[in-house]
Amino acid sequence: MLDCAIVGGGPAGLTAGLYATRGGLKNVVMYEMGMPGGQITQSSEIENYPGLFREDPPLTGMDLMESWPKQCQHFGLVHEMKEVRRVSKSDDAFIIDLGSEKVEALSVVVCTGSTPRRAGFEGEEEFFGKGVSSCATCDGFFYRDREVAVLGGGDTALEEALYLANISSKVYLIHRRDEFRAAPPTVERVKKNEKIEVIYNAGIRRAFGDVMGLCGIELQFNDGRENMTLEVPGLFVFVGNDVNNAVLRQEDGSFICDLNERGEVLVDLNMHTSVKGLFAAGDIRMDAAKQVVCAAADGAIAGMQALHYVQEKIG
After folding, report:
1. Which superfamily does CATH assign the domain made up of 2-116+241-314 to?
2. Domain regions of the chain by residue span
3. What's the CATH architecture for 132-237?
4. Torsion over CA of 256, 257, 263 and 265, rounded to 10 degrees?
5. CB atoms inside a 10 Å sphere around CB 54
6. Contact 131/212 with Cβ under 8 angstroms?
7. Torsions phi, psi of 296, nearest 5?
């Protein structure tokens, strides 16, 4: 039986494993299908992680996370590339369903995060991966010296628009409101960038193209203006995230612990869920700030609390 099972290998999961093993737990496994690091590895520029800053070239998410797995596994954390289908409870242990096998654990830390949300306009799925993307770092290179569009008004959208402005000839930033909800310094940088044209009070009605991929998008306005067409080969969508809580769903459709109306896990300040021994950290939890430093802090708290829980349980 595992002392602790960690589901998810982003900043929260890695840090939970570091603190749990360094604190004394011996059998701790982190389940992550891909390479550890999480969504932050796709970020083009990191300038708000304390103690780490690089101006030219800027520090990327991949740079930031490069050394984390080695450090977090130094004290005994084991990474298994297996998919967790469900976390359930049986008597005094948790059952980790891996499909082909089931593993018991005294405690569980769920750090499965969230996934970029689709905007839902016509043609989005048809051209996703063929001009429509949710990762500027991954796909921005394909649009060097070409015009692109970005949909969204939060920090991620504006940061990625700034990144694309370094590659593309022009960036159309499309926002459904008349003001941004991103951090003021980021908004100011966007407004000062001559290669970024902001289009307020607009959404995307449809994306169109041919067998080669995206050719353009049709905008519709909520302030009475006529529809407008932008001929762009690349569109980057940043309109929020969906919570990855599927591993918490039980066979009868209920969830093992309490969630809010957005599907986020309810936790206290110690990352305790409504089920003893089950912890949630990072973007899956309620009111998550969706920042790496906060996810790491969540993971540290959850790892220490799992340690204390197991120590008390086994005496």
Report:
1. FAD/NAD(P)-binding domain (3.50.50.60)
2. 2-116+241-314, 132-237
3. 3-Layer(bba) Sandwich (3.50)
4. -130
5. 13
6. no
7. -65, -40
Q: Residues with catalytic annotation?
A: 135, 138-139
Helix or strand holding residue 199 (H, E): strand 196-199
Residue found by looking up tokens 């990625």 in the block: 160
pLDDT 10s per residue in the chain (315 long)? 999 999 999 999 999 999 999 999 999 999 999 889 998 887 777 888 999 999 888 898 899 999 999 999 999 999 999 999 999 999 889 999 999 999 999 999 999 999 889 999 999 999 998 999 988 877 899 999 999 999 999 988 999 999 999 999 999 999 999 999 899 999 999 999 999 999 999 999 999 999 999 999 999 999 999 999 999 999 999 998 899 999 999 999 999 999 999 899 999 999 999 999 999 999 999 999 888 999 999 999 999 999 999 999 987
User: Are 152 and 48 in contact, with CB atoms under 8 Å apart?
Assistant: no
For 190, the enclosing helix (H) or strand (E) is helix 184-192
Q: Which amino acid is at 33?
A: M
Question: What are the structure tokens assigned to 47, written together?
Answer: 């300038």
Q: What ranges in the chain are assigned the alpha helix state H?
A: 11-22, 61-65, 68-73, 136-139, 155-165, 184-192, 292-314
pTM of the model: 0.80
Residue 180 to residues 74, 145, 174, 205, 234: CA-CA distances in angstroms? 43, 26, 11, 21, 22
Which DSSP symbol is given to 128? B
Q: How far apart are CA 244 and CA 7, in angstroms?
A: 11
